[in-house]
């Protein structure tokens, strides 16, 4: 008869940490599936439709982000990818470091990086103006009213 040794640490209850890990696991699976759709849609529109990769320039992005649909698409892709990646890095830190100060510092750095990149990326998408007021007409894209 084979017996299984007792684990090194007692089993955690399904308290706060147990639920966090469960929801983080579920998030990774759901966000992964949604990201596949978002990324392949993004690649299809940018690389296959129209002139392909040769058409991607400032005007292409400006025209694309003139449509609220593409702003939401890109921001959703940004948020899901950053949170997905941050959660993956959190898991790596949990796996390769011992609980303590170093682990808290690493997790804090990951959290800070994710938050900063989400805020900056969201600001770029929603405040992007391809036709800034007061710019010289020769520097504006052809679709701007002043050009």
From TrEMBL:
Per the UniProt entry, what species is this protein from, by scientific name? Agromyces seonyuensis
Keywords from UniProt, A to Z, are: Cell inner membrane, Cell membrane, Electron transport, Heme, Iron, Membrane, Metal-binding, Transmembrane, Transmembrane helix, Transport, Tricarboxylic acid cycle
Q: Answer whether the UniProt record assigns the keyword Acyltransferase to this protein.
A: no
Q: What is this protein called?
A: Succinate dehydrogenase hydrophobic membrane anchor subunit
Where does this polypeptide localize? Answer: Cell inner membrane
Q: Annotated pathway, please? A: Carbohydrate metabolism; tricarboxylic acid cycle
Single Gene Ontology BP annotation: tricarboxylic acid cycle
Which GO cellular component does the record give, naming just one?
plasma membrane
* One Pfam entry name: Sdh_cyt
Give the membrane topology, semicolon-separated if more than one: Multi-pass membrane protein
The UniProt entry lists the main location of this chain as membrane
Membrane-spanning ranges? 26-45, 75-93, 105-128
The cofactors it requires, by name, are: heme
